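Inverse folding, one chain.
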């Protein structure tokens, strides 16, 4: 990986050195089971609680109200999303078995909602506009009094647009429905509107933490059925032995999000400006104004994105979600915003952040632009 210049921050982020240092003792000497009653177990359990508070602090961000809440550690955001949707759906009353989600949700949400549809729930996916944003009038019309559950991603993992989750949540609450929010790409980058949400999923490895650890935030009063059965180690609801090392790593990553927030955001804005200037001939996919600037999804007619990635082996970037990269199918998100196969196949996603150097970024973008021009010249 050291030979690559990394521009795939939406797939995963580099592990922060401080996170690696914080995790090491819990991987080596302090290996006790945090659910054991002896001193080593109690120390591990205490470290997990510190980590939990740090993740909560990063998630809360600028929210001023002290809304009652719980935070459960999970194996990642996929488990958190599955648990939130399946666990909440299991508690819906007979007259509220309608579930509404956006067509551009992550696969872990779309596949879970599809599964619930096979279990007898009434499921509807709402379309988005060319800008990638859902029409709030459509949300108000389709989230009815029969709706029990709504799912809306905060920052889209493929095109970076920011959905109006606060407004969607207000509509859901007015109708008596719960709102689940996938905030994986938003944590620490933009404010998470917790006041509008009932359940929120986050992940460590998207914010310079370790892989294999995520969390589900749940508002007090929201009842969930367990997804995993066993010892009920996490709050009596989530079973499985927690890893102190992973929890501590997530906690340290969250602490750094709070500590470095302004610095990280200013750095991303500089990178965004450089990238837009260098790739000025490319067309932006999704809203130009309502988006996170660490995600640049662009296209250029006539360019073969897959070939571009293959030819530029010194660079790491993508043509869409890493979760679906092996399918060979165009992105469902790009299709949802109205792009045809040709446009989708000419699109690339560039993700950058804390550890991306400005000079290196310019060099990488010039390589991409130059290689694309060679493709276009060869085709003309």
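Residues assigned per position:
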């Amino acid at each position: 990986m050291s030979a690559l210049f990394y521009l795939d921050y939406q797939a995963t982020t580099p592990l922060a050195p401080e996170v690696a240092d914080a995790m090491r003792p819990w991987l080596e000497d302090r290996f006790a089971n945090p659910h054991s009653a002896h001193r080593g177990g109690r120390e591990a359990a205490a470290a997990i609680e510190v980590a939990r508070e740090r993740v909560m602090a990063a998630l809360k961000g600028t929210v001023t109200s002290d809304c009652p809440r719980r935070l459960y550690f999970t194996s990642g955001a996929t488990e958190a999303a599955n648990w939130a949707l399946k666990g909440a759906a299991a508690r819906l009353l007979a007259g509220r078995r309608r579930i509404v989600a956006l067509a551009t949700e992550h696969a872990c949400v779309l596949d879970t909602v599809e599964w619930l549809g096979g279990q007898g729930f009434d499921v509807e996916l709402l379309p988005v506009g060319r800008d990638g944003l859902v029409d709030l009038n459509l949300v108000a019309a389709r989230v009815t009094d029969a709706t029990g559950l709504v799912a809306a991603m905060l920052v889209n993992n493929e095109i970076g647009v920011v959905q109006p989750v606060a407004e969607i949540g207000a509509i859901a609450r007015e109708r008596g429905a719960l709102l689940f929010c996938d905030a994986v790409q938003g944590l620490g980058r933009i404010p998470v509107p917790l006041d509008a949400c009932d359940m929120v999923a986050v992940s460590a490895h998207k914010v310079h933490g370790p892989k294999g650890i995520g969390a589900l935030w749940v508002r007090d009063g929201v009842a969930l059925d367990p997804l995993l059965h066993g010892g009920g180690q996490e709050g009596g609801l989530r079973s499985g032995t927690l890893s102190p090392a992973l929890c501590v790593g997530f906690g340290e990553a969250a602490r750094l999000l709070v500590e470095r927030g302004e610095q990280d955001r200013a750095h991303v804005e500089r990178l965004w400006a450089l990238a837009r200037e260098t790739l000025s001939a490319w067309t932006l996919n999704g809203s130009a104004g309502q988006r996170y600037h660490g995600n640049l999804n662009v296209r250029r007619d006539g360019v073969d994105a897959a070939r571009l990635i293959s030819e530029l082996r010194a660079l790491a970037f993508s043509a869409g979600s890493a979760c679906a990269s092996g399918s060979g199918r165009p992105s469902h998100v790009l299709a949802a915003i109205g792009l045809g196969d040709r446009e989708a196949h000419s699109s690339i996603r560039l993700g950058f952040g804390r550890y991306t150097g400005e000079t290196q970024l310019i060099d990488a973008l010039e390589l991409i632009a130059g290689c694309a021009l060679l493709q276009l010249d060869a085709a003309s």
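The domain at 5-12+261-379 is CATH 3.90.1150.10 (Aspartate Aminotransferase, domain 1). The longest strand covers residues 69-74.
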